[in-house]
TrEMBL record:
Belongs to the NipSnap family. Transmembrane segments: none annotated. This is NIPSNAP domain-containing protein. Coiled coil: none annotated. InterPro entries: Dimeric_a/b-barrel, NIPSNAP, NipSnap_domain. Residues 69-164, 204-291 form the NIPSNAP domain. SUPFAM superfamilies: Dimeric alpha+beta barrel (SSF54909). PANTHER family: NIPSNAP-RELATED (PTHR21017), PROTEIN NIPSNAP (PTHR21017:SF17). GO terms for biological process: mitophagy. Pfam families: NIPSNAP.
C-alpha cells in the first residue's frame, strides 16, 4: 500500500503494534522506498538486477528463526525510470546504513511489467522490520529520498516469505551456509568470483500459486527436496545457479517462488532443456502439477 507523503507516514505506513499484527495474522502491507549499492551488479533475464547491498553478517536472527524475506514490488511511472534509478543510486549509502537486510533489487526485462522493480530484504523477524521502518521514518536523508521519488511511483506492493529450508538442505554442498537462505544469497552475490565477473548475468523468478489448504506447500517442498537434486545434476555445464527458494507468509498465500541465475538467456534455455531428462525431477513435476493453479516466470 502506498504511504502518504505526510511527515507522520514518510517512507512507510506506521507499523502496526505487535499485538495488532498478530491479531490480523501479521497482515502487514508496508513498504520502504529503495536505494541501491553495489556488492555485485546482477543483470536479468526477466529482471535486470539494479544492485545488491549487504552487511558483513547474516543479521541478528535468533538461532531458532530462519528469518523473513520481504519482496517489495514497485511500479515506476512510464518515462520516469531513469530519474528513479538516479535517485536510488544517489541515496545508496542511506539505504545501506538504515536497512542492512537489503539483499538486492531487480528490474523486470521480460515476463511482466517492464516498469517494475523488485527488492528483496531480509529481516530477523517482524519486530526487526518494524524497528527498521521506524529508523527510516525518522531519518532526514530517507525523507529527502522519498520526497524525490514519491512523484515517480505508480504503486507498490509488499509480501513476506519464509525460506524453503527443506529444499535448500536437499541440495546443500559442503558449506553449511548452502542450506541457510540468507547466507546462501549473500555468499553468492558477495563471492570473489561473482564480484570479478564482467557479465552480471540474468536472473529468473519462478512463481507457483498453489491451491488452498494447509498441505500444498509442505507437499510441494517434500517433492522438491526429492526431485531438485536430479535437476541440478542434469545441468552438467552449470548453466543455472539456484539462489533461493521461498514460500509466502503474508500476502498471496500458498505461493512458492524460486530465484535462479544464468550467464545469459541462452544458458537459461540450456538448463531447462537439460532438466527435462532428469527422471526424478520429471516425477516431482508430475506430483506438483495437480496442486498448481498458476505458474509464471519472469
Amino acid at each position: 500500500t502506498r504511504h502518504s507523503s505526510s511527515p507522520a507516514s514518510r517512507g512507510e505506513m506506521s507499523a502496526a503494534s505487535s499485538s495488532m499484527r498478530r491479531a490480523v495474522a501479521r497482515g502487514l502491507r508496508l513498504s520502504a522506498r529503495g536505494g541501491a549499492t553495489s556488492c555485485s551488479r546482477p543483470e536479468m533475464l526477466v529482471t535486470r538486477g539494479l544492485s545488491a547491498s549487504f552487511s558483513s553478517s547474516a543479521g541478528a536472527r535468533s538461532a531458532s528463526s530462519p528469518g523473513l524475506f520481504e519482496f517489495r514490488v514497485c511500479s515506476v511511472k512510464p518515462g520516469a525510470m531513469d530519474a528513479y534509478l538516479a535517485a536510488c543510486a544517489s541515496h545508496a549509502g542511506t539505504r545501506a546504513r538504515l536497512e542492512p537486510g537489503f539483499l538486492g533489487a531487480f528490474r523486470t526485462s521480460v515476463g511482466g511489467d517492464v516498469n517494475e522493480i523488485t527488492r528483496v530484504i531480509a529481516h530477523a523477524d517482524y519486530d526487526a522490520r518494524d524497528a527498521a521502518i521506524a529508523a527510516m521514518r525518522a531519518d532526514p536523508a530517507w525523507t529527502a529520498f522519498c520526497d524525490s521519488t514519491d512523484p515517480l511511483i505508480a504503486h507498490e506492493t509488499s509480501e513476506m516469505f519464509l525460506p524453503a529450508t527443506k529444499c535448500l538442505e536437499a541440495v546443500a554442498g559442503d558449506s553449511p551456509s548452502d542450506a541457510d537462505a540468507e547466507a546462501r544469497w549473500r555468499d553468492f552475490f558477495c563471492s570473489k568470483s561473482e564480484k570479478q565477473k564482467t557479465n552480471p548475468g540474468v536472473f529468473e523468478l519462478r512463481a507457483y500459486q498453489l491451491e488452498l489448504g494447509y498441505n500444498p506447500i509442505p507437499k510441494l517442498m517434500e517433492h522438491m527436496s526429492k526431485g531438485l537434486p536430479s535437476k541440478l545434476k542434469s545441468d552438467t555445464e552449470k548453466n543455472g545457479l539456484l539462489i533461493g527458494m521461498f514460500y509466502s507468509d503474508v500476502g498471496r498465500l500458498n505461493r512458492f517462488i524460486e530465484v535462479w541465475r544464468y550467464d545469459s538467456a541462452k544458458n537459461h534455455i540450456a538448463a531447462r532443456e537439460a532438466a527435462r531428462g532428469a527422471i526424478e525431477w520429471r516425477e516431482c513435476v508430475g506430483h506438483i502439477a495437480p496442486m498448481v493453479q498458476m505458474f509464471d516466470t519472469k
